[in-house]
Amino acid sequence: MNSTRVMKIHEGGFAALISSAVNGQPSESKIVPRLFNTFPLPILSDLPVFLHATFSISGDGRSLVVDEKGSQAHCSALNKFLLKEALPKILLEFLERLAGNIGQEIFDYWPRKDLEPNSCVKDMCTFFWDELPSSKWRVFPAAPPPILFTNPNKRQQPKLFDIKDAVFDTLPNYQSDAI
Questions:
Q1: Are 14 and 91 within 8 A, CB to CB?
Q2: Which domain of life is it from (predicted)?
Q3: Looking only at Cα atoms, what is the longest distance across the chain?
Q4: What Å distances lie between residue 37 and 43, 74, 169, CA to CA?
Q5: Taking the CA atoms of the chain, what radius of gyration do you get in angstroms?
Q6: Helical (H) or strand (E) element with 35
Q7: Are 111 and 125 in contact (CB under 8 A)?
Q8: Beta-strand relationship, 140-141 and 160-161
Q9: Where are the domains of the chain?
Q10: From the CB of residue 173, how many other CB atoms can be counted at a distance below 10 Å?
Q11: How far apart are the first and last CA of the chain?
């Protein structure tokens, strides 16, 4: 008897809305980031970005499978793998690429540390913050030069640093601006 196993290909990714202008005018409609599994799920992401992954979802398509008991245990393990291991690394790569386009605004797209305990992305955010100190990803943009030293007609890519090369300004704004 010849047995072949079918492996599911897992995928994941992030998307960020960096401009919501319509015909040059700012859009007033607020788009709330959600989770996707090839189609939008009725689950808010609790992140400032949209999240797509090949999650195992419940039969009614309204929630992620997280129960570790019974026949759904393998589905729960897949979701935990995606949220705790695969997606935080993809998020760091996504943020590095996005930082190259938007500079200092990148911090608006970082996950928050103060999520609700029952948030479906809490484990992912915890892993992100745990992974960041040892990360090789360049997600820290250099401070932009003062306006009088820049040529407004020549936009430059922001210089990015990883955590070991980044220098953090922890001074209050009034002191930092004076320097």
A1: yes
A2: Eukaryota
A3: 77
A4: 11, 17, 39
A5: 20
A6: strand 34-36
A7: yes
A8: antiparallel
A9: 12-19+30-178
A10: 8
A11: 75
Encoded tokens for 122: 């809490």
Q: What is the pLDDT of residues 113-172, one digit of tens each?
A: 888 878 888 888 888 888 888 888 898 888 776 665 556 566 677 788 877 777 776 767
DSSP, residue by residue, 80-139 = HHIIIIIHHHHHHHHHHHHHHHHGGGGGGGSPPS---TT-TTHHHHHHHHHHGGG-----
* Nearest Cα to Cα of residue 62 among 87, 82, 37: 37
What does the pLDDT look like over 65-120, one tens digit per residue?
A: 766 654 455 568 888 888 888 898 899 999 999 998 888 899 999 998 888 878 88
- With a cut of 80, say whether residue 176 has pLDDT above it: no
Cα dihedral 78→98→159→130 (10° resolution): -30
Q: The tokens of 141 are what?
A: 């943009």
Give kind and range of the element (H or E) at residue 173: helix 173-178
The answer to whether 83 and 119 have CB atoms below 8 angstroms apart is no
